[in-house]
Amino acid sequence: MMLMRVVLLCLLFSILPPLPTVQASTLAHDTAQKRQALLVLINRLGYDDLAAMPELQKLSQQGAIALMNVNTGGKRTDSNAYVTMAAGAPATLEPVDVQAFNADEQFQDVPVTAVYAGLHGRRADHEVLLLSLPSILRKEERWNFKASAVSLGEALYRHGLRAAVLGSGDRADVLWRPATLFTSDETGRTPYGDVSSRLLARDPARPYGVRTDYDRLWSEYQALRGQASLVVFDLADLYRLAEYRHHLDETQWVALRQTVLQELDQFIGRLAAEQPSDRMLLIASPQVTVAAKSEAEWLSPVIAVGGGIGADSVLTSATTRREGIVSNLDVAPTLLDFLQVPKPQGMIGYPLQATSALEQQRLGALKAATIWTYSNRAVVLGVVGTLIGCGLLLAVLRLYRLQLGVNLGAIRALLWVALTMPLCLYLLPILCPSGLWEVAGGLWALYLLFAAIPFRILPFCQTLTGRLTWLCTWTIAVVVCDTWQGGLLAKRGLLSYDPIVGARYYGVGNEYMGVVVGAAALLYAMLLHSSRVRRRGLGASAVLGGLLLTAFFASPALGTNTGGALTMAATTGLCFAMQKRWRPLPTLGVLAASLCVGAGLLILLNQPSAPPSHIGAAAGQVLTGGFEEMARIFARKSDMFVRLLFSSIWPTVFLLFLSLFVYLLYRDQKRAWQTRYPEYRSVIGGMLTGAVVGLFTNDSGIVVLGLISLFALFPTMLIWLELDTGPMRTPKRSVSLRR
Where are the transmembrane segments (predicted)? Predict the structure, then answer.
């Protein structure tokens, strides 16, 4: 009997602890039920349009505003923009794949409810029905992300919340109701709303003879009070006008657009007039304007009010870590976060947050600078690449005794320009250039400051070894220090990542990851050769430096580059092993151990408690999705790798040239230049082998390989030219570096 009482008492105590948790969960659910999120989609709205919309301006000052990247899983089309925003992951969808109806409508003279019952095997009541959902779900299987087009609505329904959708983008006989993607559950049903033509008023003066009936839309919204936790408005008059653009002359186009903007502004003013504390209003444009599209200005406005968003601020998110620039992937997670619903698996965006680190008044300048960088990147890098290619070609011709009327000093200068350009391009944003001539002048000034002048006046830089050590040290130090301070220069660099391209927004991109890895390996080779550095302990110091740089790349708060951590670790181990002239089998063992160390640092530094990053997000997806998610990540990386590798003939030409260089580097084991640089070839071999590791561990591997190889090709050419010999010949004479 006593034993029975003890058992019952233990059971009682085992039940008691969860009670507060259950109560807290119930309170949280009740709080979420009382909250309401409004998402207003104004397709083809531009940031510059806000100047003609006083209500929207007032609203942005009450909350926060930002520029939103409109990238998708494919082309920047309207259908891809809507589904990407709804899924919270890059996605693609054809316009014909979005077929949504009210339950009381007909589809091809058949009641929609009957069609829905035939597709899903269940009845439908007075709901909005996404008839094409089975087709959409089949297309999701080809996406490289484990996301669903209806993950937002389904997440709400699983937590007892309901959604509503209001608005129609129909034009003539073409049905266009994509906002249903935000509110449908996994069976294609939205409990409340209206997407039919009843929300459109006939107006022969408007595109396709219709316009949004804002009075009817307001009445429908008022009827939903207290029923839906999420209400999505799709205000499509700007979209219809954009599609009708080719029928209008410029005067009529401007007049109609101004009228549409005024009507939109008035409706948003009505929404903003009643803004309780438990409501969030989020306004976004899925796609950019016609003018912005023609100029490749792929940034649209997004405004958030309520939900704890501070007044007169700008938006940011863990996706971009950039003040004033966010991603369309962040819209769905923001709504779920406000409604206290966990983000579903496959949704890779993060909630929007307000920050006062940037003033709203500076957002226009940020937009102009970002677009300028995106528009001029190809031109600047094309010119720089041409100079680098000319220097390399002239050096090769000189080494083979082909005289083209170019003296040795000019060829050397071009080679030094090639080695200095990554550093100069990284520092260029300090000068704030606003035109191509200013870019040219800024790069020339930085080259003089970091190369030409120090090479003339500093005693340390009067030898080839000293000059290479100088450049490598500055390059590594500038990238690491800037990243440590938040990457202000990297975020504006012409050779760095681009927020409009959207492949990366923070940390160290693959371009400068390759630069740092190559510069670090070359620095090790030069220190081995320098007579001013003691050899004792240099190998251990190099391994420690490589370990620190590996941790730098692996850190979610700094480099945030998985491929960079693995490439740096592999290059460090290979350079050390090959410099020690170890046999192939031990060298392979060092390579495997180095990769394990890199992977271990990635796991150690990217725990769930670490700052949010795409590395942590990928790790979380793998932990929850297993091998299937690993296969998706591999497919994404492989697709990007193949696209870059075969984007033009130049990657193939580069690989052939690099193979020829390696052949010449290792063909003759007793070349005269090796007596002056006995350790150089071994370290360069480790660098190039590490570059091959980088080729396969990064989605833009060909870029990594090219930039690491820059620090192998051009120093070797300078060494060969220093002796004024061809790669197959005995030195003719030594050329003084003081000339």
Answer: 378-397, 409-431, 443-461, 468-485, 505-525, 537-555, 561-578, 585-605, 644-666, 678-696, 702-723
